[in-house]
Amino acid sequence: MIYLKSLLNVIDNSGALVVECIKVLRHKPKSCAQIGDQITVVVKEAKPIADGTTSTNKVKRKDICRAVVVRTRSPFRRPDGSMVKFDDNACVLINKNGEPLGTRISSVVAKELRDLQYNKIVSLAPKTF
Q1: At residue 21, does pLDDT exceed 90?
Q2: For the CA atoms of 82, 71, 114, 92, what is the dihedral angle to 10 degrees?
Q3: 3-class secondary structure for 79-107?
Q4: pTM for the whole thing?
Q5: Share of the chain above pLDDT 70, in %
Q6: CB of 107 within 8 A of CB of 35?
Q7: Which pLDDT belongs to residue 28?
Q8: Which pLDDT value is given to residue 108?
């Protein structure tokens, strides 16, 4: 579960490395985010911009962006009864239309994203778990 001030790893190539959750965008009474929920984040760490070269970084430190939670450390139950728990909290940065900012995703994502219509994120990921 992702709460206010939670730190998440960014697993795409948008330029951000670590982000902090500042708002959970939900219409439910809970104030925590789970897999597939959109959150508003602020970039805490980003890849350094090299001098004299064109940068592929789309975000820099202190930028405010939207993100989709793709992994959580908190265990959750799937409809078939199995419990799934990941090693870290991770997200993918998106724009307001729900399309990812990066062109690659470097790690696995949860397969629940396919049911939530994040097909572009699932197709960029090397593996769904």
Answers
A1: yes
A2: 180
A3: CCCCEECCCCCEEEEECCCCCECCCCECC
A4: 0.91
A5: 95
A6: no
A7: 74
A8: 96
Check: CB of residue 4 under 8 Å from CB of residue 100: no
User: What is the distance in angstroms between the CA of the first residue and the CA of the last residue of the chain?
Assistant: 18
The b-or-e profile of 55-67 (16+ CB within 10 A means b, else e) is eeebbeeebebbb
Nearest of 70, 87, 71, 92 to residue 19 by alpha carbon: 92
Q: Which CATH superfamily is domain 7-47+60-124 in?
A: Ribosomal protein L14/L23 (2.40.150.20)
pLDDT of residue 58: 85
pLDDT of amino acid 67: 97
Residue 9 and residue 89 in contact, taking contact as beta carbons nearer than 8 Å: yes
